[in-house]
Structure to design on (122 residues):
């Protein structure tokens, strides 16, 4: 589970978000959509603990994993973004950061995850 409470972030004197709160429960899927400069990447960097909010908290339990495809991703050959995002190759190449948004049976065969972790994750 991921809980965001009263999050605020200001960059260069511009408030990107203020009093932002939400909860994402196990099994839920969320898409973050907005115009350039709205703060989507900044929010993800806070959720991933790469950046600090000006106020508020982000809480994740120990089994929660956050996944996203960064704006500046490395080249993946001839495959489309969709093929990489839904395929085993993405799971194998970058499991720790980019492949945890959805659940597909073949993903559970990813050797990067222990059997115990596969069996206890939602």
């Amino acid at each position: 589970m991921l809980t965001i409470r009263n999050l605020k972030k200001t960059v260069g004197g511009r408030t990107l978000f203020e009093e932002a709160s939400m909860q994402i429960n196990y099994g839920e899927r969320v898409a973050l959509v907005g115009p350039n400069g709205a703060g989507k990447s900044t929010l993800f960097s806070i959720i991933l603990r790469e950046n600090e909010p000006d106020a508020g908290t982000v809480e994740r339990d120990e089994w929660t994993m956050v996944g996203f495809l960064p704006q500046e991703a490395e080249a993946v050959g001839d495959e489309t973004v969709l093929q990489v995002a839904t395929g085993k190759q993405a799971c194998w190449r970058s499991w720790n950061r980019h492949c945890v948004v959805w659940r597909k049976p073949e993903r559970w065969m990813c050797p990067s995850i222990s059997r115990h972790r596969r069996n206890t994750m939602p």
User: Anything to note?
Assistant: The CA atoms of residues 92 and 110 lie 6 Å apart. The beta strands are 2-11, 14-24, 55-60. The chain has two domains: 2-60, 81-120.
